Amino acid sequence: MGSRVQRIRALVWFVLWASGVVNPSTVLLGQEEELMSGFTGFHFLSIEKSCLFLLKEQASHPDVLEADAKQIAEMARQTFDTDGPLLVVASGRDTIPVSSAIKHLAPENVFVVQIQHPRSHLNRFDLVITPLHDYYPLTPEGQGQIPWFLRRWITPREPPGSNVVLTVGALHQADFTALRNAASAWHAELAPLPRPLLVVNIGGPARNCSYGVDLGKRLAAMLQNVLWSCGCVRISFSRRTPEKLSRILMKEFGTNPKVYIWDGEGCNPHMGHLACADAFVITADSVSMLSEACSTGKPVYVIGAEHCTWKFADFQNSLQERGVVRPFTDVQVLELYTTQ
Predict the structure, then answer these.
(1) CB within 8 Å of 257: residues ≥ 6 apart
(2) Domain covering 176-327, topology
(3) Which is nearest to 169 in space by CA: 115, 133, 142?
(4) What are the backbone angles phi and psi of residue 130, rounded to the nearest 5°?
(5) Where along the chain do the CATH 3.40.50.2000 domains lie?
(6) Does the global pTM surpass 0.70?
(7) How many Å apart are CA 187 and CA 199, to the nearest integer?
(8) Per-residue pLDDT tens for 286-316?
(9) Structure confidence by residue, pLDDT tens digits, 139-154
């Protein structure tokens, strides 16, 4: 059994970080973005809003199970002798009851990977993959921000164990293959554009990164400062972007021939932008957008990091310390710096 678990552990690592590995016995539960990030080359069948299952593209499966812990555990027991442990990958808090129940029902027949910190009882899972900044509450700075009478309620309470894999940012789909495919798909539209191409991704205020229209005004002013050094600029808003903020950018750049603003209609150019941009400006509120942009190895400028608090401020600091982002403050020329 030990050697089988070691093999499945190695498989998890390879699938998550190299992609393209086909495992005949894999079940996925949870949030689509983080689950699909490490499993390119597979076919996903969406069963419910919070439930995904993975099947080999070339394989047929008589019964696509729903998120039923008993059924999945039974399947694991039945296939164990021929296929080894069933790999169960779950993401998000909503999946914790199901994934932990599967492990409880078939402890010797499954290998359970939980993406995102489950907050407590990490020994319920074989592997936990979570961002480094989730452990900010255990740092001296984090402890200093928590009133003493609340410290027992703040998680996590213990340092990461041997079954915890820490990531700097969020898992995402923007790997080498995805970017190469996006570059090909968007070649006709983006390749002829004058360079350098600056992509601006704007999110929206969040609980731990709150800002208002003042950030929109500052962003507009900063973009005007560097516009002369850009071949062109492409701006995208998210669903969280306040209308007042987007209106500021539309008013400032809506008629500028060097600036394209995606209006939300037609194909989303996000992956094309990641593949083809020469540099990025991103609002500090979105861990996902920053993680994607930083993974490209291109220059990333951040605006609004001073508004981040708690572990999200720690995330911003970790990116700056690694040299993968720079603040978009008092920048007069777009510098295509080399990331570490």
Answers:
(1) none
(2) Rossmann fold (3.40.50)
(3) 133
(4) -150, 155
(5) 176-327
(6) yes
(7) 16
(8) 999 999 999 999 999 999 999 999 999 999 9
(9) 988 888 888 888 878 8
